[in-house]
């Protein structure tokens, strides 16, 4: 009994000593890199003030909010607004529109930057490569409003696209008013605007690939596709996993501006998403508590998706994920 008690005391003493050394090591590291941590201070302050600070306002989703009475003095209503949204006749349409637009965009748009980066990596002449990169990156700097205006001009019944379609089929297609075409107009235009810029991170990762690996593989008779499959793709695989997790985690956070700008009264059955619904209910109708509940519901779904997709990717990617 005495020997077991002594062994327990020794184990406790070793644990405390280890924790003390770890704490001292962390403090020494913090002191050593104090100037680097000091550089993080402005970013941390901005994040706390403008990201975490306003989060207290989310409690209006659980209140019968009145601007006159204020947030704290408004009456609690619990999950009333959430139940109202989940049982509303528009819930299924709005939820599925958001999910389909985001999911289709992720499925169609995720591989494009990777393919662009792999193709750019095969261009050896720097001048040609820079010109192509400039051409691919330029759409990212075009305003969303300009892109929406371009789509309305080019896809109008008398626009250049429909002139070609009318010449082939004899009748124009109602791209901007038919709900069936809205999703593809949105997704394809989004890929055109963002794919080139999104490929930068993959191009940067591929720049670290040792050229000797490709030379050795070529000498062994490996084709271009095999070299890409066994050398380039494994290099960018961790980045692909992180980008996919973040994209899938934000699958319900589709941009408001472009969807709202492309909306018409005719394509509303396909273009009304949670973001535009929150804007109309909250700012136009003044029902702030209900719109806050819808927005919070959307954010909770994103958190669940982020955690779930991260767990799945970690299992499929040798335990490598976002965290």
UniProtKB/TrEMBL annotation:
Gene3D superfamilies: MetI-like
Protein name according to UniProt: ABC transporter permease
Source domain of life: Bacteria
Organism: Paenibacillus wenxiniae
SUPFAM superfamilies, sorted: MetI-like
Family: Belongs to the binding-protein-dependent transport system permease family.
InterPro entries cross-referenced by the UniProt entry: MetI-like, MetI-like_sf, UgpAE/MalFG_permease
Bilayer-crossing regions: 35-53, 101-120, 132-155, 184-205, 236-256, 288-313
Primary localization class, coarse: membrane
Keywords (A to Z) from UniProt: Cell membrane, Membrane, Transmembrane, Transmembrane helix, Transport
Membrane topology of this protein: Multi-pass membrane protein
Subcellular location: Cell membrane
Residue ranges of domain ABC transmembrane type-1 in the record: 95-313
């Amino acid at each position: 009994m005495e020997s077991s008690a002594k062994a327990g005391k020794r184990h406790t003493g070793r644990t405390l000593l280890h924790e003390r050394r770890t704490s001292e090591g962390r403090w020494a590291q913090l002191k050593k890199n104090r100037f680097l941590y000091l550089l993080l201070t402005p970013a941390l302050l901005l994040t706390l003030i403008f990201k975490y600070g306003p989060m207290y306002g989310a409690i209006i989703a659980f209140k019968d909010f009145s601007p006159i009475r204020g947030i704290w003095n408004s009456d609690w209503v619990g999950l009333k607004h959430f139940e109202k949204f989940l049982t509303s006749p528009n819930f299924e349409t709005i939820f599925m529109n958001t999910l389909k637009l985001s999911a289709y965009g992720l499925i169609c748009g995720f591989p494009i930057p990777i393919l662009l980066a792999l193709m750019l990596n095969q261009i050896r002449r720097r001048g040609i490569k820079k010109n192509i990169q400039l051409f691919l990156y330029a759409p990212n700097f075009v305003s969303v409003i300009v892109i929406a205006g371009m789509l309305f001009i080019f896809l109008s019944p008398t626009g250049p696209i429909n002139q070609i379609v009318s010449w082939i089929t004899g009748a124009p297609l109602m791209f901007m008013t038919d709900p069936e075409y809205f999703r593809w107009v949105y997704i394809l235009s989004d890929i055109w605007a963002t794919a080139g810029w999104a490929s930068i991170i993959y191009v940067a990762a591929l720049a670290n690939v040792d050229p000797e690996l490709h030379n050795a593989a070529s000498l062994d008779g490996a084709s271009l596709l095999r070299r890409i499959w066994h050398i380039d793709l494994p290099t960018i695989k961790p980045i692909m996993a992180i980008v996919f997790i973040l994209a899938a985690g934000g699958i319900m956070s589709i941009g408001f501006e472009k969807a709202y700008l492309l909306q018409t009264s005719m394509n509303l059955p396909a273009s009304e998403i949670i973001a535009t619904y929150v804007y109309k209910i909250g700012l136009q109708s003044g029902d702030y508590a209900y719109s806050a509940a819808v927005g919070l519901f959307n954010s909770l779904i994103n958190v669940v998706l982020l955690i779930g997709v991260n767990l799945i990717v970690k299992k499929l990617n040798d335990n490598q994920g976002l965290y």
